Amino acid sequence: MEILSLQNDCSLINVDDLVAEPYASVISYPKADNSNLDDILAEIKTLGVESIIFEGPTRIGGLEVLGKGCVGIVVKAVLNDRIMALKVRRADANRPSMKAEAKFLRIANSVGVGPILESYSKNCMLMELVPGQNLKEWLSKLHRKETAPLLRSIVRDILDQCRRLDDRGIDHGELSNASKHVIVVDRPIIIDFESASTKRRPRNVTSCAQYLFLGGSTSNRVARILRILPEEQIIKVLRQYGSSAQDGPSFAELLRRLKLTKKNE
Ligand SMILES: Nc1ncnc2c1ncn2[C@@H]1O[C@H](COP(=O)(O)OP(=O)(O)OP(=O)(O)O)[C@@H](O)[C@H]1O
Ligand SMILES: [Mg+2]
């Protein structure tokens, strides 16, 4: 948990000052429509947020934020001297509210996956801040041999989280392109459950393994560092896992066949 230790930081803006530009059109993105802005500000206050810190790797206009997607703008939020991540629904998002995403994140949390959900409202979701880099950036900074054990343990951890989601019956829905949906801090955290479902058959392990080892934007790098099996064999191993019971023993067998078990380190 990041604890607030800022003094006179000009990126720290009190909630009451968000009504003015340039903050208003970031909080009510893409434009500061009055009634939408009023709703969001009232909700932010009800959630207990005292101020917002405009700081992060993404820029909107002249302000920095943690991230910007099709559904939301994510900013650092301060409450009770703690810094959390606040996802604010975009006015042009194709979702009526943050309720479904919060519900799925809570289910993921129940099996120890995802940033911990603090609270939510129609337009806002407050969660644990994950101060890391997305998987793609993290991987691009890894060097070959000396990092193989670290990468292997991160990959194993991601797949183990996927298995727990599978077991719980929740499909994340976007792990076949995991580069932006996994943030690596000291361990990997799966984010963004807005496309999740408990109605589809969960395919988190196989989708994410496909991304990591086969077609994903970083799979060549993963394959090179971990010296994993040739593609045809991975496809075969994943197919066999897909038609297995997908329980603890079949998952252990999958890790063994992918040479991801600890004894390979
Ligand atoms: N809890 C968090 N802590 C830190 N950064 C976060 C957190 N949640 C999201 N982010 C950052 O904000 C970005 C956008 O978040 P998210 O993917 O949830 O939004 P989205 O609108 O659903 O995006 P997309 O259109 O890509 O699906 C993420 O890629 C990540 O960089
Ligand atoms: Mg999303």
SSE topology sketch:
Layout: E1 2-3, E2 12-14, H1 24-27, H2 34-46, E3 51-53, E4 58-60, E5 63-65, E6 67-68, E7 72-79, E8 82-89, H3 99-110, E9 117-120, E10 124-128, E11 133-134, H4 135-140, H5 148-168, E12 182-184, E13 188-190, H6 204-215, H7 219-226, H8 231-242, H9 248-257
Antiparallel strand pairs: 1-8, 2-3, 3-7, 4-5, 6-7, 7-8, 8-10, 9-10, 11-12, 12-13
Helix pairs in contact: 5-6, 6-7, 6-8
The structure holds adenosine-5'-triphosphate (ATP) and magnesium ion (MG).
What percent of the residues sit in helical stretches (DSSP H or I)? 25-40%
What is the name of the CATH superfamily of the largest domain?
Transferase(Phosphotransferase) domain 1
Return the domain count. Answer: 2
| Overall shape | elongated
Q: For the residues shown, what is the average pLDDT?
A: 92
Task: Encode the helix/strand succession as letters.
Answer: EEHHEEEEEEHEEEHHEEHHHH
Sheet having the most strands: 8 strands, antiparallel
Rg, Å, rounded: 20 Å
Q: How many H/I helices?
A: 9
CATH architecture of the largest domain: Orthogonal Bundle
The count of DSSP E runs of length 2 or more, i.e. the number of strands, is: 13
Low-confidence stretches: none
Question: What percent strand?
Answer: 15-25%
At the fold tier of CATH, the topology name of the largest domain is Transferase(Phosphotransferase), domain 1
Top-tier CATH class of the largest domain: Mainly Alpha
